Amino acid sequence: MKLSVSFITGLLTLVLNGTWFVHAQQVTVLTKDQAMAQMLSANFGIQMAQNEQSQAGNNASVLNSGYLPGISVASGASYDLQDQEVTFRDGSLNVVDGAETKRLNAALNLNYTLFDGMGRYYNYQRLKQTEKLSGLQVRATIESTLLQLFTVYFELARLSENQTVLKQVLNNTQDRLNRAKYSFDFGQNTKLDVLNAEVDLVNDSIALNNNAQQLVNTRRDLAVLLNDDLNKEFAVDTSVAFLDELSLDAFSEKSHTDNVRVLIAESNKQLSAFGVKFQRSLELPRLGLTGAYGWNEGIFPATGFATKNISSGFSAGLQLSWNIFDGGSNRTALKNSKISLENQELALEEVKMQVDRDVANAYGDFLNRKRAYQLLRRSILTAQNNYDRSLDRYRLGQLTSLELRQAQINLLNAKMNANMAKYQAKLSELTYLQACGQLLNVPL
User: Fold this and answer.
1) CA dist 76 to 103, 105, 297, 315, 323, Å?
2) How far apart are CA 214 and CA 159, in angstroms?
3) Tens of pLDDT along 187-203?
C-alpha cells in the first residue's frame, strides 16, 4: 500500500510532538534512595505489617503477661418487705405486718497466682517471641516489597532508555526517507526505496508509541508501590553500579545467621519449644492467693434478735489446686507439642538447605548476567560501527536500503538487549543480597 507524504509527515509529527506520551517539560528525577524512603513510609503492605507488629507488641506487654494481680470491686443492696410471725422459745408471739429488711454490702477483692508450674513464664516468653517473629515478618515484607520496587523501577529505567534509542532510530529512518525521496526526485533510485523507508518509518513510529505507553503504565505501577499520585510525572535514575564481587562472595557465609527466612524458621522453632514447656507446666500444682476487704450493713425488723448489724474487715486465703488426671487430654497435647517442635526443627533444616541453594543460584545468575551485559556493551560498539559504515556505503549508493535497515535493526537490538541485561544483572545482584540477608544492609 502506498503511503502519502502528508500521512508520513503527520505521523512523525504526532510521534515526536504528541503531548500524551512525550513531554517537553522538565520532570523530577526520582532517585533510588528517594523511592526506597517513600516506599518505607507510605507502602500499604508495609504499613499493615507494621500495624501487626504493634499488635504483637501490645500482646507481649506486662499488662498481658498474667504477672499482675486481679483486683475487683463488688457491691450490692437488697430490700425485703414481708409479713412475719415469730414464736420465741418462751412461747411469746411477735407478729409484724410489712416487716422491712435492708442489706448493703461492698467488697474489694484481690486474686493473685503465686505459682502455676511456670506456665505464666513460658506463656510470656512465647508472647515475646511472637513479637520478635512479627518484627521478622515486617522485615520480610520490606525485603519483598523492595525487590518488587526495584523490579518496577528498573523496568521504568529500561523503557526510558529504550525510548531514547527508539527516537534515534525514528530520526535515522526519517533521514533515510528524506534522502530516498531526494534521490528518487533526481532519478538516482527507484520508488521502491521510498516505499521501504515509509514502511520502516511507520513501524518505528508504532514501536516508539508502544514503548511510550508501556512507560506510562509502568510509571503508574511504581506510583502504586509508593502510594503516590498515579498521574504524577517523574523520571528515574538509569545509572547502575554493581558491588564488588569479592564483597558479594563473602556475604554467602552470613546466610544462615542473617537470612530472614532462616530467622523466621528459628523463631517458629523457639515458639514450639515454649509450647512444649507450657504444656508441661499444666501438669504441676497451682497456688493462688486471695484477699478481700468487705463492708456489710443490715437493718432488720422487730422479729429479729438485732435491729441493725454492721461489719467490715479483711480476709485472706491460699488456694491450692492440682489437676492430677484430666482424662489424658493434657498428655495428648504435650505429645503433639513435641511433634510440632520436631517439625519446626526439620523445617529449619529444610529452609537452611533452600537458602544455600538460593544463594548459589542467585550468585551464579548474577555472574552470568553481568558477563552477558559486558559482552552486549561491546556488541553495541560493533553494531554502531557496522551501522556507520553501512550508512556511508548507502549514501554512496553501494548498499541497498534493505541492507542498511538490517544494520539499523542490529544496532537497535544490541542497545535494547544491553539495556535489559544491565537491569537483569542488577536485579540478580539484589536477589543474591536478599538470599544472604544483606539486602537492607548495603547501599543499593
Assistant:
1) 8, 5, 11, 18, 34
2) 7
3) 667 788 889 889 999 99
